[in-house]
């Protein structure tokens, strides 16, 4: 059976599903779809994998094999699943520590905002109490104050006079006559 060349492996094409390695042993090519961790934004994604000559390669999909593999996951000695698992474990534990730190910061920020809210509510309550107290004092002062007498001399003449112009002239004439009578005596 013909051997698959390295260029064809990278391109993702095989001529046969069974090849012979350098020892004369037949190697079977296994193909299929598996879930692969891509990144923390997209998480697990379906990818098309092929195990060729002990090398696990993957493609975005079965139809994208002509564009070349997205990357081999191990060299020709075999798949290093333990190394991949340790890398994944250390990466996820680092992310969990970072997330815990972010949650702590968010809780501290929430506590700060809660304290600000409580302080503002107390301030508003004090202002409301002071307003009510001032309003009560004003009402008390208004009730104790003597009513204004609108019958005084300032309201009979001048700018605050309740008299119209004709009545005012009559009042002036009457006042002048009264003065003349007192002078005659």
UniProtKB/TrEMBL annotation:
At the top level, the lineage of the source is Eukaryota
Q: Which InterPro entries match?
A: PH-like_dom_sf (IPR011993), PH_domain (IPR001849)
Alphabetical list of Gene3D superfamilies matching this protein: Pleckstrin-homology domain (PH domain)/Phosphotyrosine-binding domain (PTB)
Domain PH: start-end pairs: 31-66
Region: Disordered; residue ranges are 1-26
Put simply, this protein is called: PH domain-containing protein
């Amino acid at each position: 059976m013909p051997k698959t060349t390295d260029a064809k492996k990278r391109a993702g094409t095989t001529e046969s599903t069974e090849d012979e390695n350098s020892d004369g042993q037949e190697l079977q090519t296994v193909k299929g779809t598996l879930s692969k961790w891509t990144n923390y934004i997209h998480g697990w994604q379906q990818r098309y994998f092929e195990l060729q000559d002990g090398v696990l390669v993957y493609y975005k999909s079965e139809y994208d094999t002509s564009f070349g593999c997205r990357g081999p996951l191990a060299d020709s000695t075999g798949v290093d699943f333990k190394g991949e698992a340790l890398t994944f474990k250390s990466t996820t534990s680092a992310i969990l520590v970072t997330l815990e730190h972010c949650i702590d910061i968010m809780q501290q920020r929430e506590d700060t905002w809660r304290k600000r809210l409580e302080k503002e509510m107390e301030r508003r309550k004090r202002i409301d109490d002071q307003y009510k107290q001032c309003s009560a004092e004003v009402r008390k002062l208004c009730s104790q104050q003597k009513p204004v007498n609108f019958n005084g001399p300032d309201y009979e003449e001048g700018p605050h006079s309740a008299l119209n112009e004709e009545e005012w002239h009559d009042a002036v004439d009457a006042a002048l006559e009264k003065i003349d009578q007192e002078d005659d005596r």
